Amino acid sequence: MGKKSARSISFQFTAIPRSQKRFSKPYVAMTTQENGPAKLLSLQQRFRDIHLVIIDGFSVISCGMLYWIDQRMREIWPDQREVRFGGRDAIFTGDSAQLDPVTPYSLATSTDRIRDNIQRKGREIWEEIKCVCSLSSQHRPGMV
């Protein structure tokens, strides 16, 4: 029997600085903002080779913010503008029991309770996510 070799996969992580994580309300397309087209071009070049986006802390994302994230990703990857998240895979991580949900419309809010159109669109995006993996136990250093 031959020896099995481990297969190596390399990833390049690009952390978005805190100042770029903020979303203004209401969402405004970058092409309509002052210096927006230049900023958008810069983002498109910077994230051109990104195919997977990991969003940590989904429990603190409102329905409206999820809609804004989707819209911005469609701007960054215009060749996939008609596809959710600009055609990129998105992984949402977090612990819904760790922090209080955002108000007034957390991702757990039922659609029939949402009156705001943008918040409703964000909730519909959340409902479209079909693959969910839940961890059944926690293992932290020092836990017995």
Distance between the termini: 38 Å
The major β-sheet equals: 2 strands, parallel
Strand content: 5-15%
The tally of helices reads: 4
EC number: 5.6.2.3
Cofactor: Mg(2+)
Catalytic activity: ATP + H2O = ADP + phosphate + H(+)
GO molecular function: 5'-3' DNA helicase activity; ATP binding; ATP hydrolysis activity
Describe the structure in your own words:
The protein is mainly alpha-helical and 144 residues long. Helices cover 28% and strands 7% of the residues. The protein has one domain. It has 4 helices and 2 strands; from the N terminus they run ααβαβα. α3 (63-76) crosses α4. The longest helix is centred in the middle third of the chain and has 14 residues, at 63-76. The N and C termini lie far apart (38 Å). Residues 18-24 have low confidence and may be disordered.
Question: Layout of SSEs?
Answer:
Layout: H1 18-21, H2 36-46, E1 52-56, H3 63-76, E2 89-93, H4 117-128
Parallel strand pairs: 1-2
Helix pairs in contact: 3-4
Q: How would you briefly describe this protein structure?
A:
The chain is 28% helix and 7% strand. The protein is mainly alpha-helical and 144 residues long.
Any descriptors?
144 residues; single chain; 28% helix; 4 helices; 7% strand; mainly alpha
